[in-house]
Write a structure and sequence with these properties.
473 residues; alpha/beta; Rossmann fold; Helicase, Ruva Protein, domain 3; five-stranded parallel beta sheet; 16 strands; 14% strand; flat
């Protein structure tokens, strides 16, 4: 690649280990990284010939500390179109608001997986890519740890929650499959909170963020001197989680050798650290999450069949948001309510036109992307409610398709008419109303019956007649 084509990334970071890691990840995307250790060097570098070729900046908030937002604003003053991603250990929504208002393109909470970091960088710098409100912002609001926070009336989604709520009461392994952003981690935390092990250790290991040569040590531990660089004994995650729950996120990325060891550990219920001749008996509940269907990976020979069988005690599939557009209005109002409670922000409404626009998009980043989009729009909204004008890039992407959008009624997407303009059958409308009520009241069937003005026995009869599955009493 010639100098004129070279993509140059400036990393403002004073931690050598992290700098090397980010530089390696960026190189996979064709970036050459220039590392500067302080604010002054960053500003000086931008003014050089090399600095004129910088295409993006990653800033570790730790370097300028409390002045991070001031540095972002100064960088933007020098280069207004420059994408700036800020890394931080703080999950403070107020810091996210301040960083975005200062000009940050994205705000990423450490530890961040390589895929998430590169997706943010790729989306921020790809020509003609969705910008601003469609950036893959990470979550700025702490996840609620119960099923009540899982909003939606879609039948497949409610069925997934019902299966999860039932499985939570046991001790068996659980496999959760679904695209990135569909709510797998939130469901994991809800399962743990509702399980008999709720007061015990919960440890999440993101397979994709651990170097391949370290994953076995992370999971199973190692003895001192087990391999070059093993200067001390390390206890593995499985042993740490004895009597608790271990979550294996992105299990589909587990290397073959680690698959062998994990299958053996689950079969024997024992862990043997690397370099050890002894084993430790452990009682660990495994919840695995995968972005890809593991059964297909087994059929293709990329995942061990016996490990799959050990993980699939209960299999739950989270549907993508594009398959549940009727849930978008309820999700939007839910997120806006919680966003409005964050420091630096305020409660906002949402117009029917904005809901129609949001419901027309297919959301490749799923629920996580919808939340991030609303957060960004709320940061810059001057009115009392979000309108379609608060999502200009979304409007641009949908283009002429917007002319056919119909304003969403307050029934959160319940359709009264068929495509040919005739009224839908009353039974179908009634089924949608009941699904909406179940989603709105988070599966609390007593509350659903009370709000619909019918008895619980009548509600359950209608559920059976209409083929709808409830979740809670």
């Amino acid at each position: 690649m010639s100098d004129s084509q070279e993509r140059l990334l400036m990393l403002i970071d004073d931690e050598p280990a992290q700098s090397r890691l980010i530089s390696t990840f960026a190189a996979r995307e064709g970036w050459r990284t220039v590392v500067v250790r302080d604010s002054e060097s960053a500003l000086d570098t931008l003014g050089t010939r090399q600095g004129m070729r910088v295409g993006a900046i990653i800033l570790d908030q730790w370097v300028p500390g409390d002045d991070a937002c001031a540095l972002i604003a100064e960088l933007k003053a020098h280069r207004p179109a420059m994408p700036i991603l800020m890394l931080t250990t703080s999950a403070s929504p107020l810091l996210a608001v301040e960083a975005m208002r200062a000009g940050a393109t994205d705000y990423l909470v450490k530890p961040i997986s390589p895929d998430r970091l590169m997706l943010a960088l790729r989306s921020a710098t790809t020509p003609k890519a969705p910008r601003d409100e469609l950036q893959p912002l990470t979550e700025k609001i702490a996840a609620t740890l119960d099923f009540d926070a899982m909003i939606g009336a879609n039948p497949d989604f409610r069925a997934a929650l019902a299966k999860a709520a039932k499985a939570a009461r046991g001790h068996g392994s659980i496999l959760i499959e679904g695209e990135s952003g569909t709510g797998k981690e939130m469901l994991v935390r809800a399962i743990h909170a509702a399980s008999p092990r709720a007061k015990t250790q919960l440890r999440i290991v993101n397979i994709g963020s651990v170097p391949v040569n370290s994953i076995e040590s992370v999971l199973f531990g190692h003895e001192k001197g087990a391999f070059p660089g093993a200067f001390d004994r390390q206890i593995g995650a499985m042993q740490h989680c004895d009597s608790g729950t271990m979550v294996l996120d992105e299990i589909d990325r587990l290397p073959p050798m680690a698959q062998d060891r994990l299958a053996e550990a689950l079969q024997l219920r024992q862990v043997r650290p690397i370099g050890a001749n002894h084993r430790f008996r452990v009682d660990v509940r495994i919840i695995a999450a995968s972005n890809w269907p593991l059964e297909e990976m087994v059929a293709a020979g990329h995942f061990r069949a016996d490990l799959y069988e050990a993980l699939v005690g209960t299999r739950i599939t989270m549907p993508p948001l594009r398959e549940r557009p009727g849930d978008i209005p309820a999700l939007t109002r839910y997120f806006l309510h919680h966003i409005g409670e964050q420091p630096g922000l305020r409660p906002l409404g949402v117009t029917d036109g904005a809901l129609a626009l949001l419901s027309a998009y297919d959301w490749p980043g799923n629920v996580r992307q919808l939340q991030a989009t609303l957060f960004r729009a709320a940061v810059f909204c001057d009115g009392d409610a979000l309108t379609a004008q608060d999502f200009p890039q979304l409007s641009e992407m949908l283009g002429d398709a917007q002319t056919s959008l119909k304003p969403m009624q307050d029934g959160a997407g319940i359709q009264l008419y068929t495509q040919d303009g005739n009224l839908r059958p009353l039974e179908d409308i009634e089924a949608d109303v009941i699904r909406l009520a179940i989603g709105h009241y988070r599966g609390r069937m007593s509350e659903v019956a009370r709000r619909l003005g019918i008895g619980r026995s009548t509600l359950y009869r209608k559920l059976a007649d209409l083929g709808i599955e409830g979740t809670a009493a």
